[in-house]
Amino acid sequence: MKIIFASRVAAENLTGDWSDWSVISITEPVVSKLSLEPVKFKNSFMSELHLQFNDSFHGAIVFNQPEQKFATTEDAQKIVKFIEENQESDGFFVHCKQGVSRSAAIAKYLALRFSESFNDAYQDYNKELFDLLVQEHKNLKVM
After folding, report:
1. Considering the chain, what is the average pLDDT of its residues?
2. Which domains does the chain have, with CATH numbers?
3. Considering the entire predicted model, what is its pTM?
4. DSSP single-letter state for residue 117
């Protein structure tokens, strides 16, 4: 299973054939007009999941955002279900705004789910989101 996580800018500038890949697109719900617009991919994917939630920055609250919506159990359920329904994809491309925390948490979960390697030295993933995904995984007993 191929797993890539990246920024929104990288996602919007992808070239090549991604028609056998699935994408998980994470955007912010309220931050700016740009974050309210869906990502405009230049190419098509086999399947797409679009979710909106803020990054929790490992438990820290971002005070300059008027409203914050963090990942919920429902978001984790949607992600795990999407992954299970699309496990025949050639790979999963996951993006968030910066391509550092939320997308990395999902990529780390994907690596766990499909027994792939993930750089254990990489610690910038969103631990709260990863924990939600692991818990939902256990609830579904998908492995």
Report:
1. 87
2. 2-140 (3.90.190.10)
3. 0.87
4. -
